[in-house]
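To illustrate the input format used throughout this study, we show a single complete record. The first block contains the structure-token representation of the backbone; no residue identities are included at this stage. The design step must infer an amino acid for every position from geometry alone.
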């Protein structure tokens, strides 16, 4: 999945000569690497954004993991299993990218488990039917791709590089979701109704994935100047709507937005008002599944303690063996 535009950089540090040199490198499209000098605010912004992104990948495994045992065929089960596993991998690359900025994995996990860190609000909605798995791949992974493709050119090297592989995998996720929707939309009346119901429930939350409107996200200026971000929230949201509405119409589905219509003058799809109160509520912890998601992560962390201990013990033993060989 996916990074929600939640980042709120605190602004540039100052205007010293180092800051000027740093900005000149950014302007020249130079990549910033872990050992390079960087303003504290740039580092903090990236730690927050990359870790929120990592948490979203990991929590994003839960709503779909819930359907692995109930996928309708072996082929669907294998594809869904591979997708959920990919999301776990995305989380790991991203935690590793965040660690290059001087934060530890333990701190990041602690922030998630104590509820101090944010993750994408989309994963706090329940998956009620098999069609939701189609809608998530089509819409949620589709929105993720829209958000993440520009991040492949992010000014911070480790983040940009991790995005290249992640985007390739996301495009497989999007296609498997759209293919599920295609089969349902061409199926029985009951299957068509399932596809429509899933679109009705996932459409608005997927538009919220791009974050608050530009007018309200007062801090995105710094991210744009640092080339962490290349497009504004509203620009990406519009791009996603323009790409997705024709796909939904191809499926014969109706979007749950009476205002949605093609604007011949602008060439874009005009759409209705997003319920930002709902967005803020879900983000603040009061969505349909926030408590359940965090409880599942905490349980997994506790039950996985023996794996971490065993891995550390193994690594210590390997180190001791290597040292002994060197001494001989
Ligand atoms: Fe992902
Ligand atoms: Fe994905």
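Output of the design step:
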């Amino acid at each position: 999945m996916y990074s929600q535009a939640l980042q709120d950089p605190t602004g540039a540090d100052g205007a010293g000569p180092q800051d000027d040199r740093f900005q000149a490198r950014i302007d020249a499209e130079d990549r910033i690497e872990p050992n390079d000098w960087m303003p504290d605010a740039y580092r903090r912004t990236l730690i927050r954004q990359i870790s929120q992104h990592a948490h979203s990948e990991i929590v994003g495994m839960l709503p779909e993991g819930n359907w692995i045992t109930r996928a309708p065929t072996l082929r669907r089960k294998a594809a869904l299993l591979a997708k959920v596993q990919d999301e776990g991998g995305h989380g790991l690359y991203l935690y590793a990218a965040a660690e290059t900025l001087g934060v530890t994995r333990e701190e990041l996990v602690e922030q998630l488990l104590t509820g101090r860190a944010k993750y994408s609000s989309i994963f706090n909605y329940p998956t009620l039917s098999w069609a939701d798995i189609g809608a998530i791949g089509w819409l949620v992974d589709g929105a993720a791709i829209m958000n993440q493709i520009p991040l492949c050119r992010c000014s911070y090297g480790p983040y940009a590089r991790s995005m290249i592989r992640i985007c390739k995998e996301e495009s497989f996720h999007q296609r498997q979701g759209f293919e599920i929707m295609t089969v349902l939309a061409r199926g029985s009346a009951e299957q068509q109704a399932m596809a429509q119901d899933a679109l009705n429930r996932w459409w608005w939350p997927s538009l919220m994935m791009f974050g608050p409107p530009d007018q309200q996200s007062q801090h995105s200026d710094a991210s744009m100047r640092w080339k962490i971000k290349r497009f504004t929230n509203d620009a990406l949201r519009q791009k996603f709507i323009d790409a997705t509405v024709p796909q939904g119409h191809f499926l014969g589905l109706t979007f749950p937005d009476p205002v949605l219509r093609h604007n011949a003058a602008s060439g874009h799809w005009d759409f209705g008002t997003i319920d930002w109160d709902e967005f803020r509520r879900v983000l603040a912890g009061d969505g349909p599944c926030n408590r359940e998601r965090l409880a599942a992560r905490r349980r997994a962390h506790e039950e996985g303690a023996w794996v971490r201990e065993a891995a550390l013990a193994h690594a210590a033993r390997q180190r001791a063996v290597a040292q002994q060989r060197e001494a001989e």
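Structural context for interpreting the output: DSSP finds 13 helices and two strands in the chain. Strands lie at 261-263, 268-270.
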